[in-house]
C-alpha cells in the first residue's frame, strides 16, 4: 500500500486566477475526506499579499470536518507561519526549503542554508510539542533559474532536517523536470542520511513525467505520494510550472498495478467536475474524461 496526501486545497489552489470562497474550499476538503483521504494539505500559513488564495487559512481550519483518523496539514515557511498553524489547530505542519539558492531568494528572500536553519527551528519546536513535522525540499530535481540542482544539496537539507526532528522528508519536483533515475538517486541519498524518517514525494506533470516518477518513488519505497484532485496547481514563484499529478489518475494507475491506496475512485471522480465549475475551466485530470476500466 502507498498513502496519498491530497494537496488540492493548498498547492492546487494557490496559483489559480480564480480565488475560491472559504465555503468552496471546505466543500472540496469534505469531498476528499468522503473519498477516503486521511492526510490533506488543507491550507498554508503564508503572507496573504504573497499568496492571496491562502488568505483565509484560519477560517478554513475553523470549519473543516475532523473525523477520526484524518490529519489536516498546514504548510509553513517560517516561525510566524508555524505559530499561526498551531493556533489554527492543524494536525501536522509541512515546512518548505528550496534546494536552490536563487529560488530561495526569489521565493522567500533568503538562502537554502538560512531556510534550512528555519526548518530546523520549526522541527525542533514541533517535536517538543508532539506535532508531526514534514520538511519538503522544493526544487529537488531542478530550478527554473539555476537549472540542474546538485543532489548533495538535497541530501544535506534532509540530513539537517532529520537531525532536528523532522518525522517525514519529501522530495519535490516543483517545476516538473524530473525523471525516474533522479527519483531513485535522490531517495537513496536521503535514506542514507535519514534512515528512520518517513519518505514522501511530490511531483508536477509539467513535462508529462510526473506519473512515471510516482511509480519510481513507490518502487523505491516511499510511504506517501502527493497529488491534487483534478490535477490542478502550480507554483506562483516558478515560471511556467503547471499542475500536480492528478489524484484520480494516480489512484487508477496504482490500483491497476495492484497497489491499494485506500481511496474510492467513484467518489474521487466527481470532484474534478466540482473544481471545473468553481474555477471556470476543465481541469487537467484525464480519468474523469475517459472513465475507469473496466467500466
Automatic annotation (TrEMBL):
<dbReference type="GO" id="GO:0046872">
    <property type="term" value="F:metal ion binding"/>
</dbReference>
<dbReference type="GO" id="GO:0004419">
    <property type="term" value="F:hydroxymethylglutaryl-CoA lyase activity"/>
</dbReference>
<comment type="similarity">
    <text>Belongs to the HMG-CoA lyase family.</text>
</comment>
<dbReference type="GO" id="GO:0006552">
    <property type="term" value="P:L-leucine catabolic process"/>
</dbReference>
<protein>
    <submittedName>
        <fullName>Isopropylmalate/homocitrate/citramalate synthase</fullName>
    </submittedName>
</protein>
<keyword id="KW-0456">Lyase</keyword>
<feature type="domain" description="Pyruvate carboxyltransferase">
    <location>
        <begin position="2"/>
        <end position="269"/>
    </location>
</feature>
<keyword id="KW-0479">Metal-binding</keyword>
<dbReference type="InterPro" id="IPR013785">
    <property type="entry name" value="Aldolase_TIM"/>
</dbReference>
<dbReference type="InterPro" id="IPR043594">
    <property type="entry name" value="HMGL"/>
</dbReference>
<dbReference type="GO" id="GO:0046951">
    <property type="term" value="P:ketone body biosynthetic process"/>
</dbReference>
<dbReference type="Pfam" id="PF00682">
    <property type="entry name" value="HMGL-like"/>
</dbReference>
<dbReference type="InterPro" id="IPR000891">
    <property type="entry name" value="PYR_CT"/>
</dbReference>
Amino acid at each position: 500500500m502507498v498513502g496519498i496526501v491530497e494537496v488540492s486545497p493548498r498547492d492546487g489552489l494557490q496559483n489559480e486566477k480564480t480565488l475560491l470562497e472559504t465555503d468552496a474550499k471546505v466543500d472540496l476538503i469534505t469531498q476528499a475526506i468522503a473519498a477516503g483521504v486521511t492526510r490533506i494539505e488543507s491550507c498554508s500559513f503564508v503572507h496573504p499579499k504573497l499568496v492571496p488564495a491562502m488568505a483565509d487559512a484560519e477560517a478554513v481550519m475553523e470549519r473543516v470536518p475532523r473525523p477520526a483518523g484524518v490529519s489536516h496539514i498546514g504548510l509553513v515557511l517560517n516561525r510566524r507561519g508555524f505559530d499561526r498553524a498551531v493556533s489554527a489547530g492543524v494536525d501536522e505542519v509541512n515546512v518548505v526549503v528550496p534546494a536552490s539558492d536563487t529560488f530561495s531568494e526569489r521565493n522567500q528572500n533568503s538562502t537554502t542554508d538560512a531556510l534550512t536553519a528555519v526548518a530546523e527551528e520549526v522541527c525542533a519546536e514541533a517535536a517538543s510539542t508532539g506535532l508531526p513535522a514534514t520538511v519538503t525540499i522544493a526544487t529537488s530535481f531542478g530550478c527554473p533559474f539555476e537549472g540542474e540542482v546538485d543532489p548533495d544539496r538535497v541530501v544535506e537539507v534532509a540530513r539537517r532536517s532529520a537531525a532536528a526532528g523532522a518525522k517525514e522528508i519529501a522530495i519535490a519536483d516543483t517545476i516538473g523536470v524530473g525523471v525516474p533515475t533522479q527519483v531513485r538517486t535522490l531517495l537513496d541519498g536521503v535514506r542514507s542520511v535519514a534512515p528512520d524518517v518517513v519518505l514522501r514525494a511530490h511531483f508536477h506533470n509539467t513535462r508529462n513525467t510526473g506519473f512515471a516518477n510516482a511509480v519510481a518513488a513507490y518502487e523505491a519505497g516511499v510511504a506517501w505520494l502527493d497529488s491534487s484532485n483534478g490535477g490542478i496547481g502550480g507554483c506562483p514563484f516558478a515560471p511556467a510550472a503547471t499542475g500536480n499529478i492528478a489524484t484520480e489518475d494516480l489512484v487508477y494507475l496504482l490500483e491497476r498495478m495492484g497497489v491499494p491506496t485506500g481511496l474510492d475512485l467513484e467518489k474521487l471522480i466527481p470532484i474534478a467536475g466540482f473544481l471545473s465549475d468553481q474555477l471556470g475551466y476543465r481541469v487537467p485530470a484525464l480519468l474523469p474524461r475517459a472513465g475507469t476500466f473496466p467500466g
